[in-house]
Amino acid sequence: MSLPDKVVLITGGTRGIGKTTAEWLAREGAAVCVTSRHAEPARPTEPLRAGDIRVARLDVTDEASVLSLFAWLRETSGKLDVLVNNAGVGIFKPIEDTTLQEWREVMDINVAGLFLCSREAFKLMKNQGGGRIINLSSISGYLPLSENGVYGSSKHAVRGFSQICNEEWKAYGVHVTAVSAGAVCTEITDSRAFNPQDMLKPEDIAAVIADIVKKPPGVRIDEIRILPPKGVL
Q1: Where would I find the H helices in 77-227?
Q2: For 125, 156, 192, 199, which has the most beta carbons within 10 A of its beta carbon?
């Protein structure tokens, strides 16, 4: 099934899982916008086109930035079929060594930013009769892993938020899926003592996301857990 009629927004989509997912969906015909804090602002006269990948500026922690991007989507495309909340940051250290600034940074990006984008996406999807929001969570949202206090707490919040969104938004055909993956070989895990050969690849996650996007509107997938062959590393 191709995706020529789908408009997709992927936050933090210029590298890792986000970039790989954008390329995968664009190959199948979707019109994709990926975001970066360092990109140029989206231009009102440049709508998304099937098979294209557009990069637009977005700081998920800045409400004005979020509102501006969604206003551009509304004006140029008139809809949003899929939001992939991929933007995230990881700080891995014991709780006693974690500063308040580090805690706030992770929570602002991983939780507050996801909330802002989901809220604005829902407004578009509600008016158009449905859509999908895919939230990148983590196996850390299930397990109390050592030296994972702030990151794990943020991913627990993502899972809980996703469940509440499904309850509130089910009447409008807006389905939210939390994708909880084990260790993935990306920049966010560079500081971890994992063997890259034992880890999932961004392509593994992109394939799962693409499969979710292709599901009929009547199919709701609340959560998916993805682990490398050796399980939790």
Answers
A1: 100-107, 113-128, 149-169, 202-214
A2: 125
If one counts the domains in the chain, the total is 1
Q: Minimal CA–CA distance to 9: which of 145, 113, 153, 140?
A: 113
pTM, two decimals, is 0.93
The one catalytic residue in 72, 151, 161, 169 is: 151
- Residue 158: pLDDT band by 50, 70, 90 thresholds? very high
Q: Establish if 233 belongs to a structural domain.
A: no
Q: Please say whether the dihedral angle defined by the alpha carbons of residues 164, 170, 175 and 177, taken in this order, is positive or negative.
A: positive
Would you call 151 a catalytic residue per the annotation?
A: yes
| Cα separation, 154 vs 172, whole angstroms | 27
Residue 133, SS3 per DSSP = strand
Strand locations in the chain, DSSP E?
Answer: 7-10, 31-36, 53-57, 82-85, 131-136, 174-181, 223-226
